[in-house]
Amino acid sequence: MSPETKAKIDNLVQQNKIMVFMKGTKLMPQCGFSNNVVQIMNTLGVPFETVDVLADSEVRQGIKEYSNWPTIPQIYIDGEFIGGSDILIKMYQDETLRETVEVALAS
User: Fold this and answer.
1) Annotated binding-site ranges for [2Fe-2S] cluster
2) Is residue 64 situated within a structural domain?
3) Is residue 39 part of a domain?
4) Peptide linkage before 70 cis (omega within 30 of 0)
């Protein structure tokens, strides 16, 4: 990953309380897993930002190296890598996601 791509990802993760690297946009997810994440965040009613990795091949590959996680979407909350769609669904179901998000937004 280039230093420029790493800096770009660093900035996105640090500047946004909830950052989702996904296929498509929050208005038009381009895969089911990305759509799951958008639906969960919308259900929680929390502000979140997204980056469409399909529109930026360097970020698409770079985010996988950045997190050492092979799949998209990837969710960061308060600068911390949370995981992908499967982990977010589990956290939503066991209520830990709401708590994590509330703590992040309050800080």
Assistant:
1) 31
2) yes
3) yes
4) no
Note the pLDDT tens digit of each residue in 45-70: 999 999 999 999 999 999 999 999 99
Please indicate, yes or no, if residue 107 is contained in any of the structural domains.
Answer: no
Residue stretches of the annotated binding site: 31
- Residue 65 lies inside a defined structural domain of this protein: yes
> For residue 16, what are the CA distances in angstroms to 20, 22, 90?
9, 15, 22
Range of the domain at 40: 3-99
b/e sequence 23-61, b meaning 16+ C-beta within 10 Å: bbebeebeeebbbbbbebbeeeebebebbbbbeeeebbe
Among 95, 98, 73, 96, residue whose Cα is nearest residue 83: 73
- What is the mean pLDDT for each group of 10 consecutive residues in the chain (107 residues)? 93 96 95 95 95 95 95 96 94 94 90
pLDDT of the residue at 107 = 83
Half-sphere exposure of 60 (CA within 13 A, CB side): 8
